[in-house]
């Protein structure tokens, strides 16, 4: 039986993939077409937890509240193989899941798109701040793509993580990275090694990843941060009763 899956699919980018240097360089993808799209039912957030002291959080989307702006981004028309490249280079399914949603073009037309959302939900109170480097990719990508001015202002006004300058904090960051940077490299290489034809890793790898992520952020929140200072941009006096839900 022949597959009914379309040869090309619209992929909605709302994070660093809005930047042409990322989508064509890092992802090695050449879109056939592109257009500005919003997702009326979703808002931008930073609920993809990553590595404290360097890249604490990455962009995600969640259901939009009435007083929030919808997320804007760029829809790229990609081949099935290029969409798999996106999945693989975004972690092979350890952080994101692919969903189908209905977007709206700048002209008001409806457009069905594939996009990435957090595989595991992190509540807003537990989300962390993106790095200045990562946020600059979103801001530059939005400017390059001519997203609406008010949305560009929203991005430019977002809270970000900035490294602290004290010697105690720098020592703490060094100690943390000695432990966790090699592990993050192992996870990255392992996700590429164990991916399937759709670009996703098996369930056993996801279990290991979830455990590693939980232990790393527990180490940060309850051991590292009280002694050396936080590495996620949040306030020092905040309490985190749980890491993931």
Topology:
Blueprint: E1 8-13, H1 20-26, E2 33-39, E3 42-51, E4 55-63, E5 71-79, H2 80-89, E6 96-105, E7 110-118, H3 132-144, H4 149-156, H5 167-193, H6 203-228
Antiparallel strand pairs: 1-5, 2-5, 2-6, 3-4, 6-7
Helix pairs in contact: 3-4, 5-6
Structure summary, number of beta strands: 7
Whole-number average pLDDT?
88
CATH domain fold name: Hypothetical upf0131 protein ytfp
Major beta sheet, specifics?
5 strands, antiparallel
What does this structure look like?
Substrate binds at residues 11-16, 134. InterPro entries: G-Glutamylcylcotransferase, GGCT-like, GGCT-like_sf. This is gamma-glutamylcyclotransferase. This protein is of the alpha+beta class and 245 residues long. The protein contains six helices and seven strands; from the N terminus they run βαββββαββαααα. 37% of the residues lie in helices and 24% in strands. It has a single domain, classed as Hypothetical upf0131 protein ytfp, CATH 3.10.490.10. A hairpin with a 3-residue loop joins β3 and β4 (55-63).
């Amino acid at each position: 039986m022949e597959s009914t899956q379309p040869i090309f699919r619209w992929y909605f980018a709302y994070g660093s993939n809005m930047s042409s240097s990322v989508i064509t360089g890092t992802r090695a993808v050449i879109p056939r077409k592109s257009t500005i799209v919003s997702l009326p039912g979703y808002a931008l957030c930073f609920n993809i937890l990553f590595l404290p002291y360097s890249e604490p959080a990455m962009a995600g989307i969640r259901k939009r509240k009435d007083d929030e702006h919808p997320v804007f981004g760029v829809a790229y028309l990609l081949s099935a193989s290029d969409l798999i490249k996106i999945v693989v280079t975004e972690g092979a399914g350890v952080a994101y899941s692919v969903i189908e949603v209905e977007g709206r073009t700048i002209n008001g037309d409806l457009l069905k798109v594939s996009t990435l959302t957090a595989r595991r939900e992190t509540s807003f109170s537990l989300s962390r701040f993106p790095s200045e480097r990562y946020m600059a990719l979103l801001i530059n990508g939005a400017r390059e793509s001519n997203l609406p001015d008010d949305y560009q202002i929203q991005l430019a006004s977002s809270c970000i993580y900035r490294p602290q300058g004290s010697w105690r904090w720098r020592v703490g960051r060094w100690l943390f990275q000695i432990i966790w940077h090699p592990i993050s490299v192992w996870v990255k290489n392992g996700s590429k090694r164990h991916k399937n034809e759709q670009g996703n890793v098996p369930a056993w790898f996801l279990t290991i990843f979830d455990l590693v992520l939980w232990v790393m952020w527990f180490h940060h929140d309850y051991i590292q941060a009280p002694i050396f200072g936080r590495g996620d941009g949040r306030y020092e006096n905040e309490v985190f009763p749980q890491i993931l839900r």
